[in-house]
User: What shape does this take?
Amino acid sequence: MNSLAPLAPGCVALVGGGPGDAGLMTVAGRAAIEQADVLLVDHLAPSGALAWAGSAAEVIDVSKLPRGAFTSQERINELLVEHARGGRRVVRLKGGDSFVFGRGMEEVLACAEAGVPTRVIPGVTSAVAVPALAGIPVTHRGVVHGFSVISGHVPPDDPTCGLDYGALVGSGTSLVVLMGVANLSAIADELLVHGLPADTPAAVVARGGHPDQEVRAASLDRIAAAATGIEPPAVTVIGEVARFAVPTLAPFHPALLEETR
Assistant: This one.
């Protein structure tokens, strides 16, 4: 499929907006915004990208803010279908990538059920981009060979939490937590209970990709206290790679940096 092909009237394009800086969006994402007749935008989408929309384009805020403005997913699905059936070119602009905790597939399925064609334009997920903007690689040769991305929007003891924290600790991967600011203390405690050492490096990157980006770094047993006052959006990285956030925390042992074979 040609991601730069013109959007057809009556089509919905799900556009991943990346980590917050409009300059980090894809070329295809920008092209879709420029063609849109209507844009459904959430609060994590890069606001600077709206400057690319045509003067006649309608912008609809469909944010889901904790303790704030809230548009249900059902209503978002209805709006996508309604505007597409009206012959408009619809862009659903999200932060990060639409398929990484973005409910993008729910919207694709709703459109498919209604017979509305969709196009998915991936974005740079904040799970990788935000740590990178803070100088943290989620993998590093000789240190860690994988990473796990989890949602922290519910605490570990919540009945709806389907995560196996023991398996996460045993995986030996970097752990990237999205939407976990409110539950960071409980998440850290659960990881400690399952055997992750208390001195494991951790870092919280708040407002990644924005001019006021902030990084707080500490050991796992102290990261929740270090992140006091941080408000979403923020990404937490737990594991040896988090040392790169603040190089003065401690140097890597040279053996960790040797190429593994």
